[in-house]
Amino acid sequence: MLPLSQQTFNKTCGFILVFTACCKLVSIAFVYNKFKVADPFFSFATSRAITLAAVVLELFTAFLIFRSKNGKLKSISIAWISNLFLVYRIGLWSVGYEPGCACLGYYAESWLAISSSLHVDWILKAILCYMLAGSIFYLCANNKRSKAQC
């Protein structure tokens, strides 16, 4: 049985991933024209294709979090998707893309009542840090527990 803190962490990450996936889907449905342009980092694909790929990855990871009984698999999947998000953000920064990541899509700011995309970007950076640091922490904690039981 996982510690309560790890169970809570896993569930919050799962809900975050489902929420952000839904925001992306709503944005694609209502602001279709903004997603027709090439993605700033993956220039071979449209923003729509990359956003849909992110939705699939987020929902798959959330499915693993909610359905798996393996605590280590949950932590690995959260660390995996967090690293993907981090690499994408570093990629945007490396190509000089200034507006930040449209992680919630373009429509989300208006219906979430957040004043600017800069605020959304900082909130999502904090969430990324939470997911990445928490998953690494619980991977290390699970590793210590399994070594102690040997």
Protein architecture, described:
With 150 residues, the chain is mostly helical. The two termini are 17 Å apart. The chain has one domain. It is built from 5 helices and no strands.
Key descriptive features of the protein:
single chain, 150 residues, mainly alpha, 5 helices
Structural class: mainly alpha
Estimate nothing, just give the exact number of structural domains.
1
C-alpha termini separation: 17 Å
Task: Summarize the biggest pleated sheet.
Answer: none
Count of DSSP E strands?
0
Mean model confidence by pLDDT: 86
Strand content: under 5%
SSE pattern, N- to C-terminal: HHHHH
- Gyration radius from CA atoms, angstroms: 17 Å
C-alpha geometry: elongated
Residue stretches low in confidence (pLDDT < 50, at least 5 long) are none
List the helices and strands and how they pair.
Elements: H1 4-30, H2 47-67, H3 71-94, H4 108-112, H5 117-149
Question: How would you summarize this macromolecular structure in one to three sentences?
Answer:
This protein has 150 residues and is mainly α. The chain has five helices and no strands.
